[in-house]
From TrEMBL:
One Pfam family this sequence matches: CoA_binding_2
Native source species: Kitasatospora cineracea
All copies of domain CoA-binding, residue ranges: 13-106
Protein name, UniProt field: CoA-binding domain-containing protein
Amino acid sequence: MSYADDATVRKVLTSSGDTWAVVGLSNNTARAAYGVARALQRAGKRIVPVHPKAETVLGEPGYASLAEIPFPVDVVDVFVNSELAGPVADQAVAAGAKAVWFQLGVIDEAAYARTRAAGLDMVMDRCPAIELPLL
């Protein structure tokens, strides 16, 4: 099942804004979040690491939660297990994000419905690093 049409994917990647909070991003270079964050940076996006350790990653200071980020975030890219993703989507809505992106394998249909009902664009079970070269 597809949880976002190509037009929504394109909109989030090209016109939703360039500040992307990457939830689950740490300095573990073996994790998918690290490679995707690097791809987002190469595409001109500002990445904001969000991880309990609040590490500086790829030159950007990290925050322990979305609520701690002291500036607006446009897109929240979620690299946590599906069981934890729903609350992150709710936090993205509360933080005033324009869009939420759940990575490949991260699926929460109730969170998708809540996020869309709140007026945000949402992409689920896709990867921006895969989608960017296709634009």
